[in-house]
Amino acid sequence: QVQLVESGGGLMQAGGSLRLSCAVSGTMLGMNSMGWYRQAPGKQRELVATIATGGITNYADSVKGRFTISRDNAKNTVYLQMNSLKPEDTAVYYCNAIYFKTREYWGRGTQVTVSS
More exposed terminus of the chain, fewer Cβ within 10 Å: N or C? Predict the structure, then answer.
């Protein structure tokens, strides 16, 4: 069974930085990609960034140039480095993993709050 556990959220002032981590327990066999999504109050969950097994990354336009997704295969962990944070980045951030192009797993989420 695959489990994803996020950590690293918190409260930060605008312009500051946070790094989120997502640790994967269980097999990595068959994993296609991992990513970060976020959901702000009253809004739908949206893509933030993804990283494929081969290392190709994809970012939402709203975070390009500010956020960086990376992975440490030895630690089975994916990171999201968030710089130049804005109040509109406030959301619950969820880790996501896709296996065999059809199976999807989610973490429970970690709250990120950016004050102005």
Answer: N
